[in-house]
Amino acid sequence: MFSDDLNMIRQKGLHRQIIDRAAPQGRLIEIGGCMLVNFSSNDYLGFASGGVSGAEIREILDEFGFGAGASRLLSGGTLVHGQLEEALARFKGTEGALLFNSGYVANIGVIPALASDECAIFSDELNHASIIDGCRLSRARTVVYRHCDVDDLRARIRSSDAVRKLVVSESIFSMDGDIAPIADLYRLCRAENALLYVDDAHGTGVLGGGRGACAHFGIRDPNDIVQMGTLSKSLGSFGAFVATAAETVEYLVNTVRTLIFSTALPPVLLAGALHSIRRIEGDEKVIEGLWERIRAVHRGLEALGMDKGRSETQIVPLLCEGVSEAMNLSEHLRREGIYAPAIRPPSVQRPRVRLSISAVHSESDVQLLLDALRRYRERGS
Ligand SMILES: *Cc1c(COP(=O)(O)O)cnc(C)c1O
Prior knowledge:
Bound molecules: pyridoxal-5'-phosphate
Helix content: 40-55%
Strand order of the largest sheet: 3-9-8-7-6-4-5
């Protein structure tokens, strides 16, 4: 039924496949029967397989069982849900926090709840697919502004006659690794009476000592921002949350369809995330270690003259001229013992190999990567 469509995808070199592992991922990953150094994961602190212990999980299982059984608004919530929300609010410095089943589900649920049909949404041109879908699901008009361009955004806000305005941006952009000017966006939103929504999926556990973009930019009262964060990246688990003012949380509980009409998260997943937050709060070196590796990779890439675009974080694109160059570079790295997949359209406009750096990488992992890239350049391909 779909063979023509599939052939078209293949012809463009854009055919994708699911790769399933037989073992956990961490510093190393097994792909196609080979153990490779893993530069592909969003598990930036290595908590996904090296975090919470089996005994701790067992305890939660004995206490609450595995499945939640129902939506949070019926009977699906547990004390662990509330405990984690309290910890998240403290971690983010907000009055409240509210859990969602994933980052995707948070964006497609919360954005429509915040933006009714008399609202205009101003969305960065490089925002994540889940934000784009959230904008589409709302009945608001969406205005796309130039990437991280505060002047362009200001002009677009001022020429809008919408009664309510919502500005949406990622903090660390997931494919380019640059940081949005959150403090400037916040100032502009206050001046223009707009609400700011920050998708801090990649900033949580990385920026601001782990507390995310608002802490990084020293925003003193983040309660009038709506911050989304995920439990699935640095926190090594699964799920997501919004941290904001208590009244906004109460409004979201009453309006977000992906919260009201979907089963609550299993409490064991939440215990894992709680454990991760406590580790970050308890030891500053966790985040410092990550930043040491990030700086080493950036220095090395600069010395090699690699084009890493605007990246200033743990996410580093190695920008390529076309799809086949990106595939070749990824293949070369794989032969050198490194897993870093090529990212192609429609995920990004410009093909690239996306590196993600983790606190669990060793100095010699970084050296292996840089040596492999040097050989790639020398080969002239
Ligand atoms: C990964 C990601 C999401 C989705 O989070 P999941 O928990 O994986 O569903 C949302 N926004 C951004 C920017 C992301 O990178």
